[in-house]
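quick one before i forget lol
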Amino acid sequence: MTSTHTNLADWRSHALALEQQLNGVILGLQPSIRLLIISIFARGHVLLEGNVGVGKTTLLRATARGLGGGYQRIEGTIDLMPQDLIYHTYIDTEGKPKVEPGPILAQGEDLSVFFFNEINRARPQVHSLMLRVMAERSIGAFNRSFNFPHLQVFADRNAVEKEETFELPGAARDRFLMEIAIAPAEDKKVYQALTFETRFHDTDTLIESVHEGQIPYRELTTFAPQIQASIHASEAVQDYVEHLRVATCRPQTYGIQLPEVAMDELMVAGLGPRGSSMLVRAAKVAAWLDGRDYLAPQDVAAVFHEVVAHRLFFTPIYELQRGWLARAFTQAILQHVPAP
């Protein structure tokens, strides 16, 4: 076995160990946690969406501990402004004004995890700033440029309360590799454990059960490209991905029909080149986690909805129905486009 294969196997064992630890912290979310692990090793930003009290914040805090490095968290509020992320001012004990780096700059290049809680409560001006940080992993401030080579942004969105919220624009949503739904399995034993087992009542102690720095964030930045280079896609799989992309743009070509939906009036824009590239990037990590060095159709299908759905633009009348429509549409595409 070559050193590259050994390295891939060693990292895979670390990834699966972190996944197991996260499943011990948050019950009933195995599929979502697998998608989160895939996003981490694909070096993509993640948006979580779910109801209140389902474990989004706990999951992200535990993930941050597993990655190590600098960690910052900010709460989305209607009065949050872009400068609040860059610096904050205060009066010191001597009555003099002071300026300190804000949450984005506080740890410099060591910033590993930036957690934006309830991002949809922040104003569009803040979303615009985050767009650059996510796209370029850099920001300009104090007449210089700051770089964050190890940064991953994790955000969650409150799907219940819509008062004083601002929907993320398409350009901002596109910067998230995945949008993952957090919905615990409807399992009586899971809910009984969460309700009656006292270890789940102390969140801080629960999070400490995750090994700090289980995945060394600095090394992860240089290792992740090895996964992409080591997983090969046959021509048949490449054609399959292209057919999937075309189906998001022209579903009628593949005979895709949805109840009470005029398919020729559904789409404004489907998956673009960056989106299909992101799809393959995530699928390759899925293949690696399953111990293979080739891309299979099931790897693409495993991440298809979470990578693709938030990159689809429906006409206004159907955009209002996105809650059910996006899932139905991506499932229909997978059913109608033949896999090799």
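fyi The chain has two domains: 31-223, 231-336.
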